[in-house]
Specification:
60s Ribosomal Protein L30, Chain: A, globular
Amino acid sequence: MERVGGPIRSGPLLFLGGIGGWYPERRPEGPGDARRQLTDALEIMSGSLARAGSSMASVLQVQISLIDPEKNQQTVEEVFRQNFPEPRPTLSWFGAADFRRQGQLLQVDCIASVE
């Protein structure tokens, strides 16, 4: 269910990429909205970080590719604020035209520090 390849560590930094907002095996009832998809992606991210010896509190940067940013930006920013403690990592997002999986609205990448 998680992306192939897992995180990559380089010195004190951990790079995670390609975390999708919807995996049918994980949530067969359907893709849901941007709130549901980002919540799921951040849950996957949290688990990957923990297995690699890091945590959400150690995330330095988050980048989100987002379908229909005009419609989904505010929701994404709300979910982001709810899931990251202060001081929050930097957030950048940009519009995307489509993803391989129909119904997927976003994809998340991050850089975190690791001890």
